[in-house]
Write a sequence for this structure.
């Protein structure tokens, strides 16, 4: 399929709006799940809450990690747009059920009681099962990224992926503001219904996305001797990049599920929802800046020129989040919550550029007809990273509390730097062009078109 055959800018705008609205709904509820469990579902014991949060995030991410390659395989055969619509419309009806855990558990237990079975459906069990079901049909961002990569000219892919990532951060920021107001004024059930409504609107908008999908032709004779899962196009370099995606997701998301609890410790329950929204909005603004600024730089700079500085800054500001507390300077007390807001903003400016660089590399070394399945595995790796981060942060929270959790991501980013320095030359050896900037590749393509011999970098 030719990237130039369809209006990639129009597609990018529609995909961006759909992702924005989807994340407005998602971020209006999910960041407040710890508070929902604690104050609505009655899980006030610290140990029980830590176990429940860990189970909630591990089960959902593990399910998405398992199912993403399946949806990627389907996308390579039936189109990425179909997968995008599946994710939006299915979860528009699944997510709102999470706001009705208590009445659903009462209804189920009454039904079980009629047949002589004891009450087994706790509100948390309903929440967990519903979240797992939602994960089975999730993956709108992955499908949209595969669409962008498959329909955008090579020299603009870094910019397009960067701009698309700003929809996530913009939606998160707006969603937190919407969620804090809706939850405080109308309660969690209305917030979950709002989430479903935004997904429906996003699905309708993405009906207008164009995709000239042509299913890859397979020789029937060769197909007889091949597994249904064809791993052609996967190389050791692919494995390296997928591994780094695991580590990046682990470092980036390790502390996210405990943000509201850290803020709760700093400002108290009465102000926790509002200040959690403020802190998360600051991180979202950082992600937006990273998307526009670093997305463009991804096309102009070589991967190593960006990745090492971004990892160093992510590590430094990640550690600064853990150290955020009230500080007295010259008799003036600087509230710790403002230090957390500042360090989290700067951390997300840095971490917001890591995944686009890795995704750009992954797209360069992957054949076009395999990008759906490869990006499916990329989603799996991000979910595995999130799951491992959740497991690690759950253990840290259980033993040392929410404040200590925030040091984990910073430490991890620092440890990843020597791995990148040692492994990226191996990728360059296998795919020399992968370590060039988009601008360099565009100039070489133009020179080849004109019959010139480009100078070696």
């Amino acid at each position: 399929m030719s990237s130039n055959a369809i209006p990639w800018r129009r597609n990018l705008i529609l995909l961006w709006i759909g992702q924005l609205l989807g994340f407005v709904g998602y971020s209006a509820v999910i960041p407040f799940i710890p508070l929902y469990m604690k104050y609505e579902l009655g899980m006030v014991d610290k140990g029980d809450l830590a176990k429940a949060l860990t189970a909630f995030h591990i089960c959902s991410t593990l399910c998405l990690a398992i199912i993403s390659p399946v949806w990627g395989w389907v996308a390579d055969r039936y189109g990425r747009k179909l997968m995008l619509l599946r994710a939006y419309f299915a979860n528009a009806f699944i997510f709102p059920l999470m706001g009705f855990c208590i009445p659903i558990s009462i209804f189920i237990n009454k039904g079980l009681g009629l047949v002589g079975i004891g009450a087994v459906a706790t509100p948390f069990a309903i929440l967990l099962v519903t979240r797992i079901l939602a994960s089975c049909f999730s993956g709108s961002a992955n499908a949209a990224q595969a669409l962008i990569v498959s329909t955008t000219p090579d020299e603009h892919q870094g910019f397009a992926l960067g701009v698309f990532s700003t929809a996530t951060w913009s939606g998160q920021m707006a969603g937190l503001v919407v969620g804090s107001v809706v939850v405080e004024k109308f309660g969690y059930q209305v917030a979950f219904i709002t989430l479903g409504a935004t997904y429906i609107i996003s699905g309708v908008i993405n009906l207008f996305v164009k995709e000239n999908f042509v299913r890859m032709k397979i020789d029937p004779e060769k197909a007889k001797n091949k597994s249904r899962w064809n791993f052609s196009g996967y190389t050791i370099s692919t494995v390296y990049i997928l591994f780094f995606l695991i580590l990046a997701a682990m470092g980036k998301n390790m502390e996210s599920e405990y943000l509201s609890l850290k803020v709760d410790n700093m400002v108290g329950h009465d102000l926790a929802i509002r200040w959690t929204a403020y802190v998360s909005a600051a991180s979202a603004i950082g992600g937006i800046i990273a998307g526009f600024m670093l997305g463009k730089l991804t096309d102009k700079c070589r991967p190593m020129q960006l990745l090492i500085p971004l990892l160093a800054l992510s590590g430094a500001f990640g550690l600064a989040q853990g150290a955020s507390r009230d500080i007295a300077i010259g008799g003036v007390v600087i509230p710790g919550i403002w230090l957390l807001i500042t360090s989290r903003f700067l951390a997300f400016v840095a971490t917001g550029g890591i995944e686009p660089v890795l995704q750009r590399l992954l797209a360069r070394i992957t054949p076009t007809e395999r990008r759906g399945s490869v990006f499916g595995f990329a989603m799996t790796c991000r979910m595995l990273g999130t799951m491992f981060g959740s497991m690690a942060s759950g253990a840290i929270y259980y033993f040392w509390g929410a404040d200590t959790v925030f040091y984990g991501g910073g430490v991890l980013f620092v440890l990843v730097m020597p791995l990148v320095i040692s492994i990226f030359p191996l990728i360059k050896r296998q795919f020399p062009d992968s370590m060039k900037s988009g601008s360099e590749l565009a100039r070489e393509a133009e020179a080849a078109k004109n019959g010139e011999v480009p100078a070696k970098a």
